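Lab meeting minutes (informal)
Scribe: AK
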Amino acid sequence: MIGSIIFIFQPSLSATTATTYHINSHVMPTMPRSFSISHREKTTFQRPPTAPIPFGITRRRVRTLVTGGAGFVGSHLVDALMARGDEVIVIDNFFTGRKDNVAHHLDNPRFELIRHDVVQPILLEHPQKESYWGNVNPIGVRSCYDEGKRTAETLTMDYSRNEGVEVRIARIFNTYGPRMCLDDGRVVSNFVSQALRKQPMTVYGDGKQTRSFQYVSDLVDGLMALMEGEHIGPFNLGNPGEFTMLELAQVVKETIDPNATIEFKKNTADDPQKRKPDISKAKELLNWEPKIQLRD
C-alpha cells in the first residue's frame, strides 16, 4: 500500500447548508498527515446511525474539500468531482502538487484553489485484505510512513464514533498515469524518467520483489464508488496484476527506449518483497475492479 484516502462526511444541518466531503490524502511518504473538519454552528453531535447511510443518498450538488488536490491522484479526483457538478475546494501546499494540474478549473465558479499547508491550522466553515492489521517495524526506516497510515485510520474511526460523522477509508496501491511527477521517487516514475534521460534504470536488490500497478482513472472510479456507497471500509484499491521490478523495467524499456539498461544497487532496509492487493471486498461491495492493465 502506498497511500490512503479518508472521506469524512457531515450531513447538512439545514436546507441551505451544503453537504461536505473531506478527503484526507497522504502525500508525503515521510510526513504523514491527519486532518479534521469542524462546523461552528454545531454544538452537539449525534451518534452514527445503526445502518450506514450512503454519501449519495441525495444527488443534489455538494461541496467537496480535497486536500492535496493539485497533486497526481488528487487532481484526477477533482476532475471527476467537477464533471459531476460538485463545488470543489482544493487545498495544496504545492510541495509535490502543481497549479497547472487544476488550472483548467480556475475560471469555473464552482472551483476554488487555496495554497496552504495542512499541518498549519486553518479554519474552514461549511453551511492486502482489509482485515490485515499490519506488520510494522516501529524503528525501521519506513516506520513513520507505516505508522502514519495506521494512526490516520484509527483517528478517523474514533472521530466517526465520537462525533457522529460518516467516514470512508481507502487503501491505495501503486498508481501511475498522466500528471505523475517524474521525480516523486516512486518506481514507475523513476524508471520512466531514467529511460527518458538515457540513464540506467535503477533496480534495488535482485529485482524479484513484486508490486501491483493501477492506472489513475481506475483509482478515481474506485474512490467515487466508495464515496457513493454505504460501506465504511477500509477497501483495498489497486490492480492485483503482479510484476517484478525486472518485468516493470522491461515494460518501460519496450515502451520508451529499447536500448535502456539496468543498474543494480543494494536494496533498502525493510523493503517489502511482495505487494499485491486483495480486492475481492471492493469487487463485492463496491462493484469495482480495475479495467486497465499495465501493458495496455
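Next up, CB showed the second protein from the same session:
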Amino acid sequence: MGLVMNSLLGSRHGGGDEFFGDVVLLLPMVGASATSLSDKSSRGHNTWTFNGTSKTVGAQFKFVTPSLSIEIASPRDVFAPDSGDWDIGDGDFTVEAHVRFRTLPVATDATILAQWAFPNFGWNCRLAAATMDMQWSTTGGNSRGSGTQVYVGGDNVIDTWFHFTWTRQGTTYRLFRDGVQAGADVVNVDIFFTSADVLHMGASDVGSSN
C-alpha cells in the first residue's frame, strides 16, 4: 500500500469554525520538512516518529503544500505519542483527511489514522481492501464486527485525491467522501476503549505497528 495524505484534522467534538477551539490535531503540512510535522492546533502535537521510507514530499499535493508519503516498508508508518486527546470514549468526534492512493491494499488493511495495536485497540479509520470504514474496540482486545462499522463502497481508485470524513454525533456515526455521505447512518452506543497505543498514520496491519 502506498498513500499520500494532506491536510489532516482530528477533533473529538466536531468540525467547522464553531468548534475550532476543540480541534486536537491539525496537520496542513505547511512548513513541513522531510521528516517532521507541525501541528497547527492549539494542542501542539509536534513530536512525530517517521518509520521506513515515510516522508513529506512536494511531488504530490492537494493544495500548495507538501504531502505525507507512506510506502510499504517495514516499519511503515508515522506516529505520535499517546495522548488524552486521542481518547474518544463516547464523545462526538470528527476525523478527516485528504488521501491519494498509489496502490490499493488487497489482502491487508491500510490505516489512515488510528490507535490500534493489541491489547490497546481503540479506533481505526482505515481502507480495508478498496472499502473505507471505521472500526473500534470496547475492551482493547476486541474489534467490533461489520454490523457496527461505517462503510463506503469499494470504488476508491488510485492516483486520485479523496476527502474522507468520519464523524459521530450523539450515537450516530457517519462517513463522508468528498462531502457526500456514504451509506446509511449507523446508530451505536459503544464507548471506545481508552487506548495507550501511539497515534498511527499510514500503518499497515502486516507487522507489529498496527
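CB comment: The longest strand covers residues 93-103.
No objections, moving on.
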